[in-house]
Structure formats: C-alpha cells, structure tokens
Design goal:
Layout: E1 2-6, H1 10-21, E2 25-29, H2 33-40, H3 51-60, E3 64-67, H4 71-74, E4 79-82, H5 98-110, E5 115-119, H6 127-137, E6 144-148, H7 158-163, E7 168-171, H8 175-184, E8 195-198, H9 200-231, H10 235-244, H11 264-277, H12 283-309, E9 314-318, H13 333-344, E10 349-353, H14 358-362, E11 369-371, E12 383-386, H15 398-404, E13 409-412, H16 421-426, E14 429-432
Parallel strand pairs: 1-2, 1-4, 2-3, 4-5, 5-6, 7-8, 9-10, 9-12, 10-11, 12-13, 13-14
Helix pairs in contact: 1-3, 9-11, 9-12, 11-12, 12-13
The structure holds nicotinamide-adenine-dinucleotide (NAD).
Length: 436
C-alpha cells in the first residue's frame, strides 16, 4: 500500500511516521521547502517525544520519504491523506478550508488512477460533499473516492495516541474506500482498537463534537476553581472526588488558565459557526468560548493587579507552550497573558524560560528576554509565573530561589505547589488558581 500525506505538520508528520511504522510506504509532502530539506536530513521540525527515532528508523528502512511536490507520487498512491491546516478564518471563526481545497484541486488535475482521498484535517460537516463537487468538476469522480478519518492525537503524546488510539473513525459512503481504510488500520486489531465505521458527515461531526465536549469539561472545572478560590473550598478534593465517579472520569478535570492550543479554540469557534449555518444556536459551546476568553482576561487582570500592588518591575514566566511536551505556542495562555501585561504595563520587564518553545515564541516578536538555562533565569527576578506544567518546574528549589530573587511573589497558574506549605514559610507570597 502506498500512502501520500499532504501537509507535514504535527498531524501529517506523526501520521506518516506511524503508518510507515506499520510497514506501509509513505511519502509526506509539504510546500515548506525548508521543512522538507531538514526532514530529508533527519532534522525534525517539531518537538514531539519519540518522533525523531521513529522518523529516522523509517527513513532508514525506506518506508518513509519526504518531498515538496506531490505530482510524481499521485499516480503511484492508493490513498491520499489531507493533513493541512484548517485555521480559523480571520474575522468570522469559520474553519478556513483554502488549504484543503487547493490541495484537492492539485490532486484532481493529475490523478488518472483509482485513489481514496481522505481528510485527516479537522473539517466542518459537509466538507466531503464540497470535495466531491470539486472532483466532479474535474470529471474524476469514477477515480477519486472520498472518506473522512479525523485525527485525535494529542501533541506531547502523539505517537502513543496514534499507535494506541481509544478509537478510529472511518467515515465514507463508498464501499471501496471503507475496505481500504479498514485495511490500513488492521495493525491496530491486535490491540482491539474499536473502529467506528460511519458516513462522512457523521465522521466530520464526531471530531468537532468530541473537541467541543472536552473544551466544555475544561471550562466547567475552571469555573468551579474560581468558586473554590472565592470560598476557600478545596479544588483538589473536588476534582478528585468528581473524577472517581466513572460517569465523569478524572481526565480534563484539572483547573488551568483557560484552554489553548491549535485545536480547542478554533474547533469550538468553528462548531458554533457550523450550528449557525444550520440555523441552530449551540448555547453551551457559545458560552464556553466566551467563558474561556473571560478566564484568560480575568487572570491577566488579576496578575497585573498583583504586580502593581507589590511594585514589581521584573517578571519571569516559566513555560510558553500551551501544554507540556510540545513546542506549540498556538493560543497559549502564557503568550496571551504576556501580551496583556506588555500592553497594560509599559515599564514591566518580562523574561521567559521554556524547555523547547522559545524558537516558536520568538516568531511572535514579543518585547521580552528569553532564558535557555532555568538555573540562571531567577537572578534578581521579583515575580515568577508558572505558565506550563513542564516536569522541570515541578521540583523547583524555592530556598535557592528565595536568595536569587529581589522580591518574592509566585503565581502558579497550574496549581502545582498548592499543597506546599514551605513556600509561604520561606517568605514567598504564593498565588494559585485556587488560593488567594
Ligand atoms: P500544521 O500547521 O502543523 O501543519 C500543516 C502543514 O500543511 C504545514 O506544514 C503547511 O506548510 C502544510 N500545507 C498546507 N497546504 C499545503 C499544500 N497544499 N501542500 C503541501 N503542504 C501544505 O497543522 P497541524 O497541527 O498538523 O493540523 C493539521 C490539521 O489536523 C488541522 O485541521 C488540525 O485541526 C487537525 N488536528 C490537529 C491536531 C494537533 O494536535 N495539532 C490534532 C488533531 C487534529
């Protein structure tokens, strides 16, 4: 089986590496020449644990290949996955499908054999129909059949998520495509991974419904956490007890500074728009979007208030990525708060440490200083804000920290040290999401 993947980002590269690990011949395409040049030299463009080894192993055994131009592979492929970005359309929140449709046009122009075209990108309900219309326009509908196979991997544990998924969704109205996709995922049978076979529209909806639900769960616990902070009730005990209820489950019940990342913000917005297009209001998700924005703003305003009240002029952020184990800073809460503080407090000096996300953060051209060495980053700081729960921030030596800092305020946006009484004893002013 020959697989072509268009779009070699977080999803395309991981999917390509994992399919090649199954033994299929995979070519990953990206129009970013630099990215492909580096990949050919085994330089991985993203930080994702385990990806380096998996890519190199499969380049070496000739199962995995990279190119900037899809044309020479189109008529050698059995299956083409679209893994291009589907960002929010500027201004209105709809998913922008320009990369998807452009790739479909490119494929239609040249394909002259039977091929299954699969959307792995997150696309609104009805996109497969629109793709079919483009294929018809090129009179290729006898050759190119369409399927939806949304991806659920999480950055930071993407390889494990792909190789051991909770489920695989195969959405198509075409029998040939269904059989081919089921055979692609056959290597997962040994792990008894459930395969949900459905139609294309339902498959497209499953992805948005899942992400909207998870964003709702996160926002729910974030609001409970605000209540706990106000009333002095114990958020840790609440989440633990709630999570023990099998109907609720313990995942996605940790309070944080609002959800971010490359998926939840854009997918909730798109879901709201999809409902509106069908003249229905998705009240819960509309409220989740507004509440999440408000959570980030309220937190930023609270931090600014603390900064002013304590006459702080130097702040250190620990963590820039939207979550640990990734270099992805898209919609990261740390970046949101930094931008807010830079705008509202002209004399504030901000610096930041992150184990892997600094190169991406630099592209934002923020007026801040970056530290690559955590141990050297605390010198003469007045306030430390823990923005991302990277493991290296879980065992900070606060005694050492105290002597290095010139003023002693901590804001722990991940509640990592909420039970650590030593911090206050040492003389720090400690703030968290659930304690004043
Ligand atoms: P990304 O921005 O990391 O990668 C997209 C890549 O596609 C880029 O490298 C870009 O250069 C390339 N590209 C765009 N048009 C192209 C074309 N015509 N030909 C060749 N290359 C092209 O995006 P991502 O995070 O991998 O997300 C891709 C899709 O998967 C999105 O729809 C996203 O919502 C979905 N998704 C993402 C995740 C995640 O954790 N990142 C998880 C599940 C689903």
């Amino acid at each position: 089986m020959n697989i072509l993947i268009i779009g070699t980002g977080y999803v395309g590269l991981v999917s390509g590496a994992c399919f090649s690990e199954f033994g299929f011949k995979v070519t990953c395409i990206d129009h970013d020449k630099n990215k492909i040049k580096n990949l050919k030299k085994s330089i991985i463009p993203i930080y994702e644990p385990g990806l380096n080894d998996l890519v190199n192993k499969n380049i070496d055994n000739k199962n995995l290949n990279f190119d900037t131009n899809a044309n020479k592979y189109l008529n050698k492929s059995d299956c083409i996955f679209l893994a291009v970005g589907t960002p929010s359309r500027r201004g209105d929140g709809h998913a922008d499908l320009k990369f998807v449709f452009k790739a479909v046009e490119q494929i239609c122009l040249r394909v002259n054999k039977k091929i299954v075209l699969v959307t792995k990108s997150t696309v609104p309900v009805g996109t497969a129909k629109k793709i079919k219309n483009i294929i018809k326009k090129y009179k290729k509908d006898k050759l190119i059949t369409v399927a939806s196979n949304p991806e659920f991997l999480r950055e930071g544990s993407a390889i494990n998520d792909f190789l051991r998924p909770d489920r695989v969704i195969i959405g198509t109205n075409d029998e040939y495509s269904r059989l081919l996709l089921n055979s692609l995922y056959k290597p997962l049978n040994i792990r008894q991974v459930p395969i949900v076979n459905t139609d294309t529209e339902t498959s497209e909806l499953i992805k948005y419904a899942s992400n909207s639900f998870l964003a709702t769960k996160i926002t729910f616990i974030n609001e409970i956490s605000v209540f706990c902070k106000k009333t002095g009730t114990n958020i840790g005990d609440v989440t633990r007890a709630m999570g023990l209820d099998k109907r609720i489950g313990s995942k996605f019940l940790h309070p944080g500074p609002g959800y971010g990342g490359s998926c939840f913000p854009k997918d909730t917005l798109a879901m709201s728009k999809i409902f509106k297009d069908h003249k229905i209001k998705f009240n819960i998700v509309d409220s989740v979007i507004k509440t999440n924005d408000k959570i980030k703003e309220n937190l930023s305003a609270e931090i600014l208030k603390i900064i002013k009240a304590n006459k702080i002029s130097k702040v250190l952020f620990l963590g820039l990525s939207f979550k640990p184990e990734t270099d992805d800073i898209r919609e990261s809460s740390s970046i949101f708060i930094i931008k807010y503080l830079l705008k509202k407090h002209k004399n504030l000096s901000i610096s930041a440490h992150d184990p892997v996300a600094i190169p991406n953060a630099k592209k934002e051209k923020l007026n801040i200083k970056y530290h690559f060495d955590l141990n050297k980053s605390f010198e003469s700081q007045q306030m430390v804000i823990i923005g991302t729960e990277w493991n290296i921030y879980r065992s900070i030596n606060f005694k050492n920290l105290f002597s290095q800092m010139s003023s002693h305020v901590i804001y722990d946006l991940r509640n990592i040290y909420i039970h650590d009484k030593e911090i206050v004893k040492l003389g720090f002013k400690y703030y968290s999401l659930s304690s004043k």
